[in-house]
Structures are given as C-alpha cells and as structure tokens.
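G.,

No rush on this.
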Amino acid sequence: MRLVSASVPSPTKPALAVRHIAALPRAWHLGSLDAPTVAATWCAAFLGAVGTTHGQALWSPIAFLSLSTWLCYVGDRVLDARSAPAPSLRARHRFYGTLWRDRRAALVATMALAGISSGLLGLKALSLQLLAEYAALTALSVIYFGWVHSGAERSARFVAKELVVGVIFAVGCALPAWTASALPHALLPAAALFGALCWLNCVAIERWETHGALSQQTHPSTRWAGRHLTALLSVGAVASVLLNVHARAHGSAQILGPCLAAAFALLAVLERLHLRLSAEALRILADVALLTPLAWWLVAGLIR
C-alpha cells in the first residue's frame, strides 16, 4: 500500500511580501525606533513653526535628539528587562532582555557608538545655549530614571512616571525651536498642548497594556486620566483647534494646531477601538498617531 503525503503549499511571493511589510511596524517598535521617529518629527514641526526649514540649524538638532532619544529608550528597556518581574514584561522588554543575554557585546557597542555620535554632534553642531539646555534636561532625566530603577519610586511615588516622561519628551522636542525663535514665549501654548499629548499617550499605553485595570500602585493622576481619557483627549483636540484659529488670526504658522488636534483625535479613536486590538498593536499605533506632521507635509507637498 502506497502512502501519499499531502504537500503543504508554500507561501507565494506576494504573500511573503505582505508578511514582511506587516512585520515592519513591529520591528520599528521593538528596535526602539518609534520614539526617535516621533521626536524627530515634532522637533522638525516646532522648528518649522519658527521659520527654520532647512540647513544645519534644522538637521543637527533633529539628529542629536533622535540619537539621544534612542539611547534613553533602549537604556530604560534594558533596565526594565533586568529588574522587572517576568509577568510584567512586554514584548519590547523581552526583546532587549534577550539581546542583553545573547548579544550583549553588540548591544553595548551599538549604544556606545550612538552615545559618541550624539556627543560629537552636540559639541560640533549645536549652539552653546542649546547644548547647555540639553545637558540640563539630560541630567534631570538621568536622575529621575535612576531613581525609578533604584526601586525607590515604587515606594514613594510622589509624581507620575507617565507625566514626567511626557514633559521631558515634549521639552526635548521643543527646545531647538525655543532657542531659535525670536519670540520663544509664543511657542508656550503649543508646547504645553504637546506635553499634554505626550502625557496622555503614556497614560493610554499604560491603560491599554493593563486592559484598563490600572493597579493601586499606579499613580493617582494616571488612574484619574485613564478613567477620563476620552474626555481629556477631546479637550486637547478642541484646544488645539482654538490654537490654530488664534494662529490664523495673527498670521503665524499653522502647522502645530492642526497636527496636535489630529493626534489627539487619533488617540481618542484608538481608545474607542482598544478592546478590538492587541496590546502590542495599540502600543505601536499610539506612536503612529503622533506622526501627524508627516501627513501635513505630505498633503502640503501634493498641493504644491
């Protein structure tokens, strides 16, 4: 009697291509390229709002901020992977935990190269004022994250990590424009709204990754914001529209208001859909929602 085994059809080339393309957002996230992309995008948006649209004054701060942001996020995820209990680890932490165990030399060398490149770029291409401001922000960040990873933060949580991360991120993105602007205080409303957007982004991720069940160890402000997330995002969108109306009335740049309003709205849509999506998909889309300036530039380029 002859035995015939059924052959399993191999994936077609189009199917493989689709699968590889679908894997790109996950690789973008696991490689910690999401936060630097958002930082670079908004740094460029703020600089564009004050008239810096080309040359070293635009690209040097963006490159410096991108490298610094990547280093910060990679360091944070490595420390989380080494110190946090296994059940609380997400895919991004497990990814760096594996790299730390199996490819430590390559990871450390890559981080060292990024750190050296960032330092040289800061010394050679940034103004003394901007370099000093970034040095102060970096020092504050290192002190705070050192405190977080020491374990003291869990027993004395006097400030929400989500709020601190959001504020530090927003300040880092706005600093180059603040330094370059002849009227830096005019950026304050947009910078404040962007800080609120970054904070609510962190709150949303924390809420979605815990399936809405924020623990009692979570800071009270984060639990409160999680309960009122849709309302807060709606307020942010309306405030951003009003910011745009004010900008149009005074003849100033209009990119920040519409992009902020769209980002708040996209996060609100994700909040409505969060039960239908995986935690990792939501984590990736939460950063994609912050890339609204890219859509603005694309539409502007098509119109021209």
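When you get to it, here's the other one too:
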Amino acid sequence: MNKFDEYKFFAQSTQFLTDKRQSATQTYLTVNSAIFAVLAFLIKDLEFKNWDLVIITIPLFTAGMLVCWIWKKLILQYKELIRWRFDQLMKMEKAMPDSYQMYIKEWEDFYKTQPGKEKFGFSRLEIILPILFMSLYFIFLGGLILATALINGQN
C-alpha cells in the first residue's frame, strides 16, 4: 500500500468514526426521550398517588442518569480518538509535500487556539446534551418530590 492509499484509508476510517459518534448521539437522544415519555405517562395517566409515584419513578430517573453518564463518557472517548486520528492525518500530510494538506489547513483555520477567536468543535456542543438531560432528570425528580411533599403536607 502506498502512502496516499494509506492516507485515504485512514481518512475514510476517521470519517466512519465520526459517523459512529453521531449515530451514538442519536441513539442516546432517543433513549432519553423514551425515558421522559415513560415518566410523563406514569405521572399523568396512571393512578399512582403520593409517594408510590416517586418510588416507582426513581429507577427510571436512575437509569436516565446512568444513560447520560455513559453517553458523556462515550462522546469524550470518541473525541479523543478522533483528535488522535486527525493528528496522524496531519503528520501524513506533512510527509506528502505535494498534497494540499487539507487537514492541516482545517486545523489552523478552525481548531487552533487563537486570541479573540472561540474554539470550534462539535464535541463541545455534543457534550452539552447529556449534561442537559442529567440536569432535567435532577429538576424533574426534585420537582416531583417537592410536589408530592407539598400535596401530602396539605392532606
């Protein structure tokens, strides 16, 4: 295999990893949406009252938090692996002097830290999603406990 074929293969496999990361994010979004749908169903449509509702929903909140924690770790692992692969691609480009060096140019224009310029990156935005869902689980559970306590305190 010559250097260009190796470079091309490495670039394609790096794109495959990026696609897998995006697919994982879609999967975890779906799982979290399903958990929230089940929680909403339990709270709205079933006849659980008082602390029974809190006790029944705690496993779902726990599962949701665990799913978010795994999701966040997975995104960070993909981020590191993909960053390493881009570093390798840039090294390969430097070894091919006649190439346009697209990855090097992309890194310099978008990812390299520059004064007055915000760092670019999808992983930074993606990592907000599991944190947002974790926060929603905490708020949702806290609100459910508070509402149950207030309702029980009035009775």
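The chain has a mean pLDDT of 87. The helical segments are 3-44, 51-94, 102-111, 122-126, 128-154.

Enjoy the weekend,
O.
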